[in-house]
Amino acid sequence: MAHPSPLTPSVRVYTSARAFLDRAEPWLVRREAEHNLLLGIAHRLTSEEVLPPDVLLATVEHAYDVVGCVFRTPPYKLGLTPMPDEAISAVADAVAARYDTLPAVLGPESVARRFAEEWSARAGVTATPGMRQRIFQARAVRGASEPPPGGMRVAAPNELGLIHDWIEAFAADAHVPLHADVIEQRVADGAFHLWDHDGPKALAAWSGRTPNGVRIGPVYTPPVWRGRGYGTALTAALTQKMLDGGRRFCFLYTDVGNPTSNAIYQRIGYEPVAEVIDVNFSNPDADRDA
Question: Which of 128, 235, 257, 266 is most deeply packed, by most CB within 10 A?
Answer without folding.
Answer: 235
